[in-house]
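>> Question from a student workshop board

For tomorrow's exercise we were told to take the sequence and the ligand below, predict the bound structure, and bring the output to class. My setup keeps failing. Could a helper post the expected result so I can at least see what it should look like? The ligand is guanosine-5'-diphosphate.
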Amino acid sequence: MTTQTGTYLRYFRNIGIAAHIDAGKTTTTERILYYTGRTHNIGEVHDGAATMDWMEQERERGITITAAATTAKWTRSGEGQEYVVNIIDTPGHVDFTIEVERSMRVLDGAVAVFDSSQGVEPQSETVWRQADRYGVPRIAFSNKMDKTGASFELVINDIRERLGAIPAPIQYPMGQESDFKGIIDIVRQRAYTYTNDLGTDIDEHDVPAEYADKVAEMRSQLIEAAAEVDEELMLMYLEGEEPTVEQLVTAIRKGTIEKKIFPVLCGSALKNKGVQLLLDAVVDYLPSPLEVPAIKGRDEDGNETEFPADPSGKLAALAFKIMADPYVGRLTFVRIYSGTLSSGTYVYNASKGKRERVGRLLKMHANHREEVSELKAGELGAVIGLKDAGTGNTLIGDDDDRVLLESIDVPEPVIKL
Ligand code: GDP
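>> Workshop helper replied:
Here is what the output should look like for this input. Compare the format with yours to find the bug.
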Protein backbone atom coordinates (compact mmCIF):
# COMPACT_ATOMS: atom_id res chain seq x y z
CA MET A 1 0.00 0.00 0.00
CA THR A 2 1.24 3.48 -0.83
CA THR A 3 0.26 6.56 1.13
CA GLN A 4 -2.17 7.39 -1.64
CA THR A 5 -4.25 4.37 -0.72
CA GLY A 6 -5.03 5.88 2.60
CA THR A 7 -2.57 4.84 5.29
CA TYR A 8 -3.36 8.19 6.99
CA LEU A 9 -6.70 6.61 7.79
CA ARG A 10 -5.08 4.40 10.42
CA TYR A 11 -5.06 7.53 12.56
CA PHE A 12 -8.73 8.40 11.96
CA ARG A 13 -11.61 7.59 14.24
CA ASN A 14 -15.15 8.50 13.20
CA ILE A 15 -17.22 8.13 16.32
CA GLY A 16 -20.58 8.97 17.82
CA ILE A 17 -21.46 9.49 21.45
CA ALA A 18 -24.74 7.83 22.29
CA ALA A 19 -26.69 7.99 25.50
CA HIS A 20 -29.98 8.06 27.31
CA ILE A 21 -31.08 11.65 27.85
CA ASP A 22 -29.41 13.10 30.97
CA ALA A 23 -26.69 10.45 31.13
CA GLY A 24 -24.13 13.13 30.32
CA LYS A 25 -23.66 13.05 26.56
CA THR A 26 -23.44 16.83 26.24
CA THR A 27 -21.05 17.20 29.16
CA THR A 28 -18.84 14.37 27.89
CA THR A 29 -18.82 15.81 24.35
CA GLU A 30 -17.96 19.28 25.63
CA ARG A 31 -15.11 17.93 27.70
CA ILE A 32 -13.80 15.95 24.73
CA LEU A 33 -13.92 19.07 22.58
CA TYR A 34 -12.18 21.01 25.31
CA TYR A 35 -9.32 18.54 25.68
CA THR A 36 -8.92 18.21 21.93
CA GLY A 37 -9.36 21.94 21.23
CA ARG A 38 -6.53 22.90 18.96
CA THR A 39 -6.06 26.44 20.16
CA HIS A 40 -6.61 25.64 23.79
CA ASN A 41 -3.49 24.32 25.38
CA ILE A 42 -4.72 22.75 28.57
CA GLY A 43 -1.31 23.31 30.15
CA GLU A 44 -1.97 27.04 30.02
CA VAL A 45 -5.27 26.94 31.78
CA HIS A 46 -5.00 27.43 35.50
CA ASP A 47 -8.48 27.30 36.85
CA GLY A 48 -11.82 25.74 36.23
CA ALA A 49 -13.33 29.04 35.16
CA ALA A 50 -11.45 29.03 31.86
CA THR A 51 -13.07 25.79 30.75
CA MET A 52 -16.49 27.03 31.63
CA ASP A 53 -15.93 30.42 29.99
CA TRP A 54 -14.93 28.86 26.76
CA MET A 55 -17.91 26.52 26.82
CA GLU A 56 -20.26 29.38 27.64
CA GLN A 57 -18.93 31.40 24.72
CA GLU A 58 -19.38 28.44 22.46
CA ARG A 59 -22.91 28.01 23.67
CA GLU A 60 -23.68 31.67 23.02
CA ARG A 61 -22.24 31.50 19.56
CA GLY A 62 -24.30 28.37 19.33
CA ILE A 63 -22.34 26.72 16.57
CA THR A 64 -19.89 23.97 16.59
CA ILE A 65 -20.79 22.07 19.71
CA THR A 66 -23.97 21.11 17.94
CA ALA A 67 -22.38 20.63 14.52
CA ALA A 68 -23.38 17.39 12.88
CA ALA A 69 -19.72 16.42 12.72
CA THR A 70 -16.85 18.03 14.59
CA THR A 71 -13.22 17.32 13.77
CA ALA A 72 -10.90 17.09 16.78
CA LYS A 73 -7.27 16.07 17.20
CA TRP A 74 -5.98 13.89 19.96
CA THR A 75 -2.44 12.86 20.77
CA ARG A 76 -2.60 9.59 22.61
CA SER A 77 -1.00 9.82 26.04
CA GLY A 78 2.56 8.52 25.98
CA GLU A 79 2.53 7.84 22.24
CA GLY A 80 3.10 11.13 20.40
CA GLN A 81 0.97 10.08 17.42
CA GLU A 82 -1.74 12.55 16.53
CA TYR A 83 -5.17 11.12 15.73
CA VAL A 84 -8.11 12.78 14.00
CA VAL A 85 -11.29 12.09 15.93
CA ASN A 86 -14.45 13.08 14.09
CA ILE A 87 -17.36 13.28 16.48
CA ILE A 88 -20.69 12.73 14.79
CA ASP A 89 -23.67 14.08 16.65
CA THR A 90 -26.21 11.41 17.46
CA PRO A 91 -29.50 12.81 18.75
CA GLY A 92 -30.21 11.46 22.21
CA HIS A 93 -33.95 11.71 22.36
CA VAL A 94 -36.11 8.75 21.50
CA ASP A 95 -38.24 10.89 19.17
CA PHE A 96 -35.24 11.15 16.91
CA THR A 97 -34.80 7.43 16.58
CA ILE A 98 -34.67 7.63 12.80
CA GLU A 99 -32.12 10.42 13.02
CA VAL A 100 -30.07 8.26 15.37
CA GLU A 101 -30.20 5.46 12.83
CA ARG A 102 -29.08 7.80 10.09
CA SER A 103 -26.10 8.96 12.07
CA MET A 104 -25.24 5.35 12.95
CA ARG A 105 -24.72 4.75 9.28
CA VAL A 106 -21.82 7.20 9.02
CA LEU A 107 -19.87 6.34 12.14
CA ASP A 108 -17.34 3.56 12.59
CA GLY A 109 -17.56 3.29 16.36
CA ALA A 110 -19.44 4.72 19.32
CA VAL A 111 -19.03 5.62 22.95
CA ALA A 112 -22.13 4.63 24.89
CA VAL A 113 -22.48 6.88 27.93
CA PHE A 114 -24.32 5.55 30.96
CA ASP A 115 -25.31 7.24 34.19
CA SER A 116 -23.65 4.99 36.76
CA SER A 117 -26.33 5.73 39.33
CA GLN A 118 -29.03 4.55 36.92
CA GLY A 119 -27.34 1.75 35.02
CA VAL A 120 -28.70 0.91 31.58
CA GLU A 121 -31.86 2.95 31.00
CA PRO A 122 -34.55 2.20 28.38
CA GLN A 123 -33.35 4.72 25.79
CA SER A 124 -29.77 3.50 26.14
CA GLU A 125 -31.11 0.08 25.34
CA THR A 126 -32.83 1.40 22.22
CA VAL A 127 -29.69 3.12 20.99
CA TRP A 128 -27.64 0.01 21.78
CA ARG A 129 -29.96 -2.12 19.62
CA GLN A 130 -29.68 0.40 16.79
CA ALA A 131 -25.91 0.23 17.03
CA ASP A 132 -26.24 -3.58 16.87
CA ARG A 133 -28.31 -3.33 13.69
CA TYR A 134 -25.72 -1.15 12.07
CA GLY A 135 -22.82 -3.24 13.33
CA VAL A 136 -21.21 -0.37 15.22
CA PRO A 137 -18.39 -1.35 17.61
CA ARG A 138 -18.74 0.30 21.02
CA ILE A 139 -16.98 1.19 24.21
CA ALA A 140 -19.02 2.05 27.28
CA PHE A 141 -18.39 5.01 29.60
CA SER A 142 -19.85 4.68 33.06
CA ASN A 143 -20.29 8.38 33.78
CA LYS A 144 -21.25 10.26 36.98
CA MET A 145 -19.04 8.14 39.21
CA ASP A 146 -19.07 11.09 41.63
CA LYS A 147 -22.83 11.03 42.05
CA THR A 148 -24.68 9.62 45.05
CA GLY A 149 -25.71 6.10 44.22
CA ALA A 150 -23.00 5.65 41.58
CA SER A 151 -22.00 2.04 41.01
CA PHE A 152 -19.60 0.77 38.38
CA GLU A 153 -20.77 -2.78 39.09
CA LEU A 154 -24.37 -1.78 38.33
CA VAL A 155 -23.39 -0.63 34.82
CA ILE A 156 -21.31 -3.75 34.20
CA ASN A 157 -24.11 -6.05 35.35
CA ASP A 158 -26.72 -4.16 33.33
CA ILE A 159 -24.60 -4.40 30.17
CA ARG A 160 -24.50 -8.15 30.67
CA GLU A 161 -28.08 -8.66 31.76
CA ARG A 162 -30.13 -5.95 30.05
CA LEU A 163 -28.12 -5.64 26.87
CA GLY A 164 -27.00 -9.25 26.66
CA ALA A 165 -23.47 -8.11 25.78
CA ILE A 166 -20.13 -9.16 27.21
CA PRO A 167 -18.67 -6.31 29.24
CA ALA A 168 -14.90 -6.08 29.42
CA PRO A 169 -14.13 -3.65 32.25
CA ILE A 170 -10.75 -2.15 31.42
CA GLN A 171 -10.84 0.30 34.32
CA TYR A 172 -11.77 0.35 37.97
CA PRO A 173 -12.74 3.44 39.99
CA MET A 174 -10.76 4.48 43.05
CA GLY A 175 -13.61 5.42 45.34
CA GLN A 176 -17.19 6.05 44.30
CA GLU A 177 -19.68 8.86 44.89
CA SER A 178 -18.19 11.88 46.70
CA ASP A 179 -15.09 9.79 47.39
CA PHE A 180 -14.31 9.22 43.68
CA LYS A 181 -10.62 10.09 43.37
CA GLY A 182 -9.29 8.45 40.29
CA ILE A 183 -9.14 5.53 37.91
CA ILE A 184 -7.12 2.36 37.60
CA ASP A 185 -6.26 1.13 34.12
CA ILE A 186 -6.61 -2.65 34.38
CA VAL A 187 -4.75 -3.33 31.12
CA ARG A 188 -1.66 -1.34 32.05
CA GLN A 189 -1.99 -1.78 35.79
CA ARG A 190 -1.47 1.93 36.37
CA ALA A 191 -3.49 4.30 38.53
CA TYR A 192 -4.47 7.91 37.81
CA THR A 193 -5.39 10.26 40.61
CA TYR A 194 -6.81 13.67 39.77
CA THR A 195 -5.26 16.44 41.79
CA ASN A 196 -7.19 19.43 40.44
CA ASP A 197 -10.77 20.07 39.40
CA LEU A 198 -9.87 20.62 35.77
CA GLY A 199 -8.61 17.11 35.27
CA THR A 200 -5.38 18.51 33.87
CA ASP A 201 -3.16 17.53 36.79
CA ILE A 202 -3.12 13.80 36.76
CA ASP A 203 -0.83 11.88 39.03
CA GLU A 204 0.08 8.55 37.44
CA HIS A 205 1.23 5.94 39.95
CA ASP A 206 1.31 2.26 40.86
CA VAL A 207 -1.92 0.52 41.76
CA PRO A 208 -2.48 1.23 45.49
CA ALA A 209 -2.08 -1.87 47.68
CA GLU A 210 -5.74 -1.81 48.73
CA TYR A 211 -6.80 -2.37 45.11
CA ALA A 212 -4.11 -4.90 44.18
CA ASP A 213 -6.24 -8.05 44.64
CA LYS A 214 -9.27 -6.60 42.88
CA VAL A 215 -7.18 -5.42 39.93
CA ALA A 216 -5.37 -8.77 39.65
CA GLU A 217 -8.72 -10.59 39.59
CA MET A 218 -10.22 -8.23 37.01
CA ARG A 219 -7.12 -8.45 34.85
CA SER A 220 -7.25 -12.24 34.70
CA GLN A 221 -10.94 -12.08 33.78
CA LEU A 222 -10.08 -9.56 31.07
CA ILE A 223 -7.32 -11.78 29.70
CA GLU A 224 -9.72 -14.71 29.70
CA ALA A 225 -12.35 -12.71 27.77
CA ALA A 226 -9.75 -11.40 25.32
CA ALA A 227 -8.33 -14.91 24.80
CA GLU A 228 -11.76 -16.01 23.58
CA VAL A 229 -11.44 -13.70 20.58
CA ASP A 230 -7.70 -13.94 19.90
CA GLU A 231 -6.01 -17.23 19.12
CA GLU A 232 -2.50 -16.08 19.99
CA LEU A 233 -3.67 -14.88 23.37
CA MET A 234 -5.59 -18.12 23.90
CA LEU A 235 -2.44 -20.17 23.31
CA MET A 236 -0.52 -18.02 25.78
CA TYR A 237 -3.37 -18.30 28.25
CA LEU A 238 -3.39 -22.08 28.01
CA GLU A 239 0.39 -22.13 28.51
CA GLY A 240 0.00 -19.93 31.57
CA GLU A 241 2.01 -17.12 29.92
CA GLU A 242 1.33 -13.50 30.77
CA PRO A 243 0.56 -11.34 27.69
CA THR A 244 2.30 -8.02 27.18
CA VAL A 245 0.24 -4.81 27.34
CA GLU A 246 0.44 -4.56 23.52
CA GLN A 247 -0.83 -8.11 23.05
CA LEU A 248 -3.70 -7.53 25.42
CA VAL A 249 -4.63 -4.20 23.78
CA THR A 250 -4.54 -5.85 20.34
CA ALA A 251 -6.80 -8.69 21.46
CA ILE A 252 -9.32 -6.37 23.16
CA ARG A 253 -9.32 -4.17 20.07
CA LYS A 254 -10.05 -7.18 17.90
CA GLY A 255 -12.87 -8.29 20.19
CA THR A 256 -14.33 -4.78 20.21
CA ILE A 257 -14.23 -4.38 16.43
CA GLU A 258 -15.84 -7.80 16.03
CA LYS A 259 -18.46 -6.71 18.60
CA LYS A 260 -17.73 -9.72 20.76
CA ILE A 261 -16.65 -7.74 23.79
CA PHE A 262 -17.33 -4.20 24.98
CA PRO A 263 -14.66 -2.35 26.95
CA VAL A 264 -16.15 -0.51 29.92
CA LEU A 265 -14.57 2.64 31.33
CA CYS A 266 -15.56 4.93 34.15
CA GLY A 267 -15.31 8.57 35.10
CA SER A 268 -17.08 11.79 35.79
CA ALA A 269 -17.40 14.16 32.86
CA LEU A 270 -18.69 16.88 35.16
CA LYS A 271 -15.66 16.64 37.44
CA ASN A 272 -13.26 16.27 34.51
CA LYS A 273 -12.18 12.80 35.51
CA GLY A 274 -11.56 10.09 32.98
CA VAL A 275 -12.15 12.04 29.76
CA GLN A 276 -8.55 11.91 28.53
CA LEU A 277 -8.41 8.20 29.34
CA LEU A 278 -11.64 7.82 27.38
CA LEU A 279 -10.02 9.50 24.37
CA ASP A 280 -7.04 7.15 24.69
CA ALA A 281 -9.48 4.22 24.68
CA VAL A 282 -11.23 5.57 21.55
CA VAL A 283 -7.88 5.46 19.79
CA ASP A 284 -6.89 2.08 21.27
CA TYR A 285 -10.08 0.13 20.78
CA LEU A 286 -12.38 1.68 18.19
CA PRO A 287 -11.71 0.98 14.49
CA SER A 288 -10.25 3.24 11.83
CA PRO A 289 -12.17 3.54 8.53
CA LEU A 290 -9.82 0.87 7.16
CA GLU A 291 -11.01 -1.67 9.70
CA VAL A 292 -14.73 -1.56 9.01
CA PRO A 293 -16.42 -3.32 6.09
CA ALA A 294 -16.41 -1.21 2.90
CA ILE A 295 -19.73 0.42 2.09
CA LYS A 296 -21.63 -1.11 -0.81
CA GLY A 297 -23.45 0.53 -3.67
CA ARG A 298 -25.86 -0.75 -6.30
CA ASP A 299 -26.22 0.37 -9.89
CA GLU A 300 -29.50 0.56 -11.82
CA ASP A 301 -29.20 -3.11 -12.82
CA GLY A 302 -28.79 -4.18 -9.22
CA ASN A 303 -25.07 -4.94 -9.52
CA GLU A 304 -23.20 -4.46 -6.30
CA THR A 305 -19.96 -2.51 -5.97
CA GLU A 306 -17.83 -2.03 -2.89
CA PHE A 307 -16.21 1.29 -2.07
CA PRO A 308 -13.15 0.69 0.08
CA ALA A 309 -11.74 3.71 1.92
CA ASP A 310 -9.30 4.91 -0.74
CA PRO A 311 -8.78 8.59 -1.58
CA SER A 312 -7.73 7.75 -5.12
CA GLY A 313 -10.76 5.52 -5.77
CA LYS A 314 -14.09 6.51 -7.27
CA LEU A 315 -15.99 9.15 -5.36
CA ALA A 316 -18.72 7.81 -3.08
CA ALA A 317 -20.12 10.11 -0.42
CA LEU A 318 -23.25 10.20 1.68
CA ALA A 319 -25.08 13.34 2.78
CA PHE A 320 -26.24 12.65 6.32
CA LYS A 321 -27.45 15.95 7.67
CA ILE A 322 -28.62 19.27 6.28
CA MET A 323 -28.30 22.32 8.49
CA ALA A 324 -29.19 25.94 7.95
CA ASP A 325 -26.39 28.24 8.93
CA PRO A 326 -27.09 31.94 9.52
CA TYR A 327 -23.82 32.98 7.83
CA VAL A 328 -23.29 30.66 4.92
CA GLY A 329 -26.71 29.21 4.28
CA ARG A 330 -27.32 25.57 3.59
CA LEU A 331 -24.68 23.20 4.94
CA THR A 332 -24.73 19.62 3.71
CA PHE A 333 -22.76 17.33 6.03
CA VAL A 334 -21.15 14.50 4.15
CA ARG A 335 -19.08 11.47 4.82
CA ILE A 336 -16.66 10.56 2.08
CA TYR A 337 -16.33 6.78 1.84
CA SER A 338 -14.14 6.59 -1.23
CA GLY A 339 -12.38 9.01 -3.56
CA THR A 340 -11.89 12.72 -2.97
CA LEU A 341 -14.47 15.52 -3.07
CA SER A 342 -12.97 18.78 -4.33
CA SER A 343 -14.45 22.26 -4.07
CA GLY A 344 -15.53 23.84 -7.34
CA THR A 345 -16.20 20.50 -9.04
CA TYR A 346 -19.42 18.83 -10.12
CA VAL A 347 -20.86 15.74 -8.50
CA TYR A 348 -23.79 13.59 -9.43
CA ASN A 349 -26.51 13.19 -6.84
CA ALA A 350 -27.51 9.63 -7.67
CA SER A 351 -30.51 9.70 -5.35
CA LYS A 352 -32.04 12.74 -7.05
CA GLY A 353 -30.65 12.09 -10.51
CA LYS A 354 -29.13 15.56 -10.61
CA ARG A 355 -25.78 17.07 -11.29
CA GLU A 356 -24.71 19.49 -8.59
CA ARG A 357 -21.88 21.94 -8.13
CA VAL A 358 -19.77 21.68 -5.00
CA GLY A 359 -19.08 25.11 -3.55
CA ARG A 360 -16.83 25.61 -0.56
CA LEU A 361 -15.88 22.79 1.77
CA LEU A 362 -15.61 23.14 5.53
CA LYS A 363 -14.26 21.13 8.38
CA MET A 364 -15.93 22.06 11.66
CA HIS A 365 -13.63 22.18 14.66
CA ALA A 366 -14.66 22.75 18.26
CA ASN A 367 -13.82 26.43 18.13
CA HIS A 368 -13.45 27.37 14.48
CA ARG A 369 -14.29 26.36 10.95
CA GLU A 370 -11.61 25.51 8.49
CA GLU A 371 -12.08 25.95 4.78
CA VAL A 372 -10.45 23.11 2.86
CA SER A 373 -10.05 22.43 -0.84
CA GLU A 374 -10.90 18.76 -0.59
CA LEU A 375 -12.34 16.09 1.64
CA LYS A 376 -10.78 12.67 1.26
CA ALA A 377 -12.01 9.12 1.84
CA GLY A 378 -12.75 8.60 5.53
CA GLU A 379 -13.22 12.30 6.20
CA LEU A 380 -16.35 14.20 7.20
CA GLY A 381 -17.18 17.81 6.59
CA ALA A 382 -19.75 20.23 5.31
CA VAL A 383 -20.41 21.33 1.75
CA ILE A 384 -21.75 24.78 0.97
CA GLY A 385 -23.55 25.20 -2.31
CA LEU A 386 -25.42 21.95 -2.82
CA LYS A 387 -28.98 22.98 -3.54
CA ASP A 388 -30.74 19.68 -3.96
CA ALA A 389 -28.94 17.19 -1.76
CA GLY A 390 -31.05 15.82 1.08
CA THR A 391 -30.34 13.56 4.02
CA GLY A 392 -29.37 10.09 2.88
CA ASN A 393 -28.47 11.09 -0.69
CA THR A 394 -25.57 9.47 -2.49
CA LEU A 395 -23.00 11.69 -4.19
CA ILE A 396 -20.74 10.17 -6.81
CA GLY A 397 -18.34 11.37 -9.49
CA ASP A 398 -20.02 13.25 -12.32
CA ASP A 399 -18.90 10.75 -14.95
CA ASP A 400 -19.07 7.60 -12.87
CA ASP A 401 -21.53 4.76 -13.16
CA ARG A 402 -24.77 5.62 -11.48
CA VAL A 403 -24.78 3.81 -8.17
CA LEU A 404 -26.66 4.31 -4.94
CA LEU A 405 -25.01 3.63 -1.62
CA GLU A 406 -26.70 1.28 0.82
CA SER A 407 -29.87 2.98 1.87
CA ILE A 408 -30.16 4.52 5.28
CA ASP A 409 -33.92 4.66 5.13
CA VAL A 410 -35.32 2.77 8.01
CA PRO A 411 -38.18 0.43 7.21
CA GLU A 412 -39.42 -0.07 10.73
CA PRO A 413 -38.26 2.45 13.30
CA VAL A 414 -37.70 0.89 16.66
CA ILE A 415 -39.42 3.13 19.13
CA LYS A 416 -39.46 1.57 22.50
CA LEU A 417 -40.25 3.25 25.79
P1 GDP B 1 -27.34 14.64 28.13
O1 GDP B 1 -28.81 14.86 28.21
O2 GDP B 1 -27.00 13.19 28.05
O3 GDP B 1 -26.66 15.45 27.09
O4 GDP B 1 -26.76 15.07 29.56
P2 GDP B 1 -26.01 16.38 30.05
O5 GDP B 1 -24.58 16.34 29.69
O6 GDP B 1 -26.79 17.59 29.69
O7 GDP B 1 -26.08 16.15 31.63
C1 GDP B 1 -27.31 16.01 32.31
C2 GDP B 1 -27.11 16.45 33.76
O8 GDP B 1 -26.19 15.59 34.41
C3 GDP B 1 -26.55 17.86 33.87
O9 GDP B 1 -27.14 18.50 34.98
C4 GDP B 1 -25.07 17.62 34.11
O10 GDP B 1 -24.45 18.65 34.83
C5 GDP B 1 -25.09 16.34 34.92
N1 GDP B 1 -23.86 15.56 34.75
C6 GDP B 1 -23.21 15.26 33.60
N2 GDP B 1 -22.11 14.54 33.85
C7 GDP B 1 -22.05 14.38 35.20
C8 GDP B 1 -21.13 13.75 36.09
O11 GDP B 1 -20.10 13.18 35.71
N3 GDP B 1 -21.44 13.79 37.41
C9 GDP B 1 -22.56 14.42 37.90
N4 GDP B 1 -22.75 14.40 39.22
N5 GDP B 1 -23.44 15.03 37.09
C10 GDP B 1 -23.18 15.02 35.77
